[in-house]
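Thread: quick sanity check before group meeting

JM: Hey all, I'm pulling together slides for Thursday and realized we never actually wrote out the predicted structure for the chain we discussed last week. Dropping the sequence here so it's in one place. If anyone has concerns about the input, flag it before I start.
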Amino acid sequence: MKKIFFIIIFTIFLIGSVEASTIANINPSGELSFLKPNMQEVLNTVMCASGPLGAVTCIEQYVQGKIIGFVSGKIMEQISKASPEIYKAITTYNQIKGYVDKGSSILKEIEINEKGKIEKGSISFNEEEYSINDLFTNSSAEDILVSNADYDFETKKLEIKENGFLKIKTKDKEGKIQERTYENIKEGYFKMNESGAIDEAKFISSNKSTYQFGNYEPIKVGADTQVEYENGKLTVYGKDKNFLYGDLNVSLIGDYIDFTGNKIQCLECQVGEISLKGFGLGLTGGIGPVEGILERTTDGYIIDRGYATYKQNVLKVSYENDRILIANLDADLSDYNGNWLRQTSNALEVKSYKEGFIDLENLENHDVLNTDKKDKLNFQIKEGDGLKIEKRTEEGLIPKVIHKSYETGETKISNDKIDLILNSKSMSLISSGPLSVKELEGKYQSVAFDIQSDSLKMNTKLRINSYSQFVVLGDDSSELVTYNKYDLPVSALIEDNSLQTIEQLRKKYPNMKFEVPFSTPVGIFGTEEVNELSEENLPPYLLYITDEFLKTNPDPEALNKIEFDNVYNAQAQTEEPTIIIGRKVVDPSQEGGEIRIRDITSPIQVIRHEYEHRMDMTIQDKEFEVIGSLGDLQIKSAVEEVNSIEEEINQLNNLEITTPEELKAWNKAMSYQEAQLRKAREKVMKEYYNAMPEKRGKTLLQSYNELAMKGIKDLVEGSGFKEQLAELSNSIEGNYIRPELDNLVQEIYHKDIITYIKEELKYESNEKVLEAYEKDMNNLHAFVISKLNSLDKNDLTPDVRDKIYTIDNLNEEIRNLAKGEDKLYFNNVKLLYAYLSGRNELDKERKQIDSLIRINSGIPYLYSLRSYGGSGDVATSFYMELPTTYREQPIETRKALVQSSNKAISDMFKKLTQLAFDSGKMDASEFQEIMGKGFCKRGDCSDKICIEYKFLCCENNPISPNCSP
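JM (edit): ok, ran it. Output follows.
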């Protein structure tokens, strides 16, 4: 016995003196082998000692230097005394043996060091539940359980297989057991440290599951979501994936989202109510995209970097001073030293700190600001300034904005094309134009609100409507300054600022048809092109203008349909009660800039002009019906011809056109029929005029024709007009006159210019224009100017200039306006006017001609005398612009002209007012307002009706004292 004791002591001494190294292996068969002979001798001595216990142990648990079975009890006590290293190795072996006996398998030989720690090897756990807590020497967990998993001791990777799991149980501060379960996992692994905590994890979920790592909130993901946890950072991958982070809904728009401590970052994601987006490639000067960053705090979320969208507020954060807190509703911000934003159901508050800067844009459907997808609104708030925006929907009012001033602060509001700059001392407003549309899909509409400052140095309030018009109001709400070029309401009412779609118009006016046609007429020859507008991209300002016009309750017989197009200001249609309203009516981005037609700057006046045409057309149609029933064979034949052509036009209008080729063919056919219709209508007028003394009296157009002819006579015969006009003509410098287009001249220089123009007109299929020009050679000169007008005279060779009717010849005629017959004289006036109208630098001279016309004849403009056909006599001329240029004038202007001390002006406007009232185009209230208080003896002015026009008037007002029985 003494000999054995000596050997054990010696062995322990030897083992204790060597460095820690692998001392034993567990092979895939579950056998423990010691690598050092001295350990085998010690083990042999202990395991196979004499006596019943040793013999049994040696046979059942030990074979040829290997442990083959579970070792426990007194044998383990003896081993611990003989060799602590062997004892630790066998203890570890017993644990592995327990797994193997339960059905697990050793995948790769397990290596154990002298401390009993496994250095290498791997084991596979089957579907049974295994506690592996003892594998982690410093585990703080209550228990660690696995199932259906492989564990590699060298890499410390625990790979969870199908239907496997990892469970870690710990105690919370109150001593309650908390369990974190990791299951429904594929293609992934976990790494755990000595304390049994997860250091690293990478896997893809196979089903809906909840996972939690470190101090982070649990994440609840769906199937096929990739999760990574490493170095204290939690990352979730999966474009378009949605999951819960604690109680937050998170949506991945980009490829991933990172959680690092209190910070959340991604290239593009949605976290709760905040949409976060980083800066794109190259925008920051780096080599790749930069993530947006959120920081969670007790007061809310701080935007550290990127674009953040919260409740339709877009915040851009690029620098430290841009950082902004999206505050919780209950956050105390009284001492908060930073930028912040807070939005409730009824208000939006934004505040910058004294060194801060806030860049805020508002998107459509903003709950407080009532924005839509057409609006463009941006706030830049800095250095202590702030804003409070109050929702006033329940009151039916647009939002109220209060500027919170700070001594060194400044706020800039960009609202479409209105820039509003506020500080503690002043409010400045810059408007670069009424609208900013550059493309139909863009943002080109302002947001309506009232704004005022809390600064005691400012006592004014500004109101902006939805179409970039504004008014400055005083303390008593009186209007101090108004910018409203389009006669649209600058209203505080939401309903006056909320019209956005054609469907809203249809609902508001159910008896009116609103359409966006496939094609629209363009050019002086009425050709058509595909309409760029559609119901989806109609600019809202067109709808507002239409609504304002329709509030005047137009006669449904004169107008029951409105079309929207991309070209014209406005146009009345002859075939049916329709007006076309074009985008150009208020769109300065179109060619020509801001609307300016003669003195008109209001689109409502333009539409009113065309509506007057449409009413005249309706009256003319009714007159035609009466004329056709008079029994005169010549008249009846002419009316039947008109009816036949109109039927042809109706059939053309009912054709479905879907291609440019079909449109071209339709244009050709329609141009021909319209030319025929004009000729046929002129024939009716001629026949009726010849028979008129025996019939019902003058038609309305004939009444206007007589006024027009009288105006022309007054001009030609009036004293001083010719001299004034000649003086004006002589003041125009010759170098303003521009010659013909070079390329066109090169083609036609060998021809007579007049012959060429006639051929051009025939080619364009506009016989009405051709006939008019054939009767008046001077109008051909005007056509030359308008059609051939671009290059400098020096670009034309002398032989070309000599062989054509040059601009110099025309200029000579203009300078000799006082010579010749009256007709030639007046047409030369028109020639000069047409030339001036095409030259912006001569606009003053054009207005002077209009002024001379008005003073000498009472005619509103020379344009009022435009003839659309006939030879100029009363019967067949179509002076259709006289009533329209009268009615386009604001009512206050017409009142003033009726009361003018100039007899020519007063007489003309009184007759035009009377004709409008007699024909039913003007109601009694407007008539009496223009003619003056007390003009009518009866409230309905029935004593003053049917004075100038009786054709239909007496039929509609049979008891009028001005209609003979």
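AS: nice. The chain has a mean pLDDT of 80. The CA atoms of residues 53 and 74 lie 9 Å apart.
JM: adding both to the slides.
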